[in-house]
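Researcher: Next sequence.
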Amino acid sequence: MTDYQNLSLNELQTVIDNAEKALKNKLVNHRKEVIAQIKELAASIDVSVEITEIDKKSPRRGVKVPVKYRHPNDPDKIWTGRGMMPKWLRTLIDQGHDSSEFKV
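Model: Next structure:
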């Protein structure tokens, strides 16, 4: 067994990359075997099955929403208009400002 503590960063990263590739290949092969077993079992009772792949990724994941509001004095404080209103904007509105003053 390899002593991982004695490996350099590059060697350790190579081991990790190779392990991830091997795991991915094993998962793909296992999936193919299971699908073949399902089709074989279905054929044994004179039934045909069609297996469709489901895309596991959410179509909304990673979608950036444009900024709608920006703090007048601190440009790092922004809000997209989604979710709870940030404290800085709530404070400014409570002071008598209108939210439209801070629209981008």
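Model: The chain has two helices and two strands. The CA atoms of residues 58 and 64 lie 14 Å apart.
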